[in-house]
Design goal:
By secondary structure, the protein is α+β, with helices and mostly antiparallel strands. Helices cover 32% and strands 42% of the residues.
Length: 165
């Protein structure tokens, strides 16, 4: 069992997301991540989906998705060079002034943006890989006692060169 990544081009219509997610829930496949957005063509959306599965189950998932009328194209991203990022907001609360300075140092090290600040709190906006976001969360948990995390799913696109992942 490992994380598998799929990109779907689908018709941008009401109910398509429900049909795709229904396929996964109907087969008891748990989605690890799902993001959806329109493409350069307003009639087409691209879904980036992560599911944990074995090889046989993953092949079944791809076949079932390819049979759906609303699915235009299925791309298996699992073993191809890709660029992938996940958005994350981290709110660090109940800070002393020295701790606010520490949040800024952490933001600098991780190359993330401090997007909001109050007298005792700061918010970080992160567009990192899942692994780097996980590392940031662990560091924030270790250093501060009151944090709030909001994560979006990952988006991915096939690389132009072969030196990515």
């Amino acid at each position: 069992m490992k994380n598998r990544w799929i990109a779907l081009y689908v018709e941008n219509q009401v109910g398509v997301l429900a049909k795709v997610s229904g396929l996964f829930s109907g087969k008891s496949y748990n989605l690890q991540s799902l993001t959806v957005g329109t493409t350069e063509d307003a009639t087409v959306s691209r879904m980036t989906i992560c599911v944990m599965s074995d090889d046989i189950t993953f092949e079944q998932i791809k076949k079932q998705l390819n049979r759906m009328v609303e699915v235009i194209k299925v791309i298996d991203l699992t073993n191809v060079p890709i660029h992938m990022k996940e958005i994350l907001f981290a709110k660090v609360k109940d800070l002393r002034s020295s701790q606010i300075e520490e949040v800024f140092r952490i933001a600098e090290v991780f190359s993330v943006e401090v997007t909001d600040i109050g007298k005792d709190s700061a918010m970080l906006e992160c567009k990192l890989t899942e692994r780097r976001n996980n590392e940031l969360i662990e560091l924030l948990k270790a250093k501060f006692r009151n944090i709030e995390i909001v994560r979006g799913g990952a988006v991915a696109i096939e690389a132009i060169s072969t030196s990515c992942r």
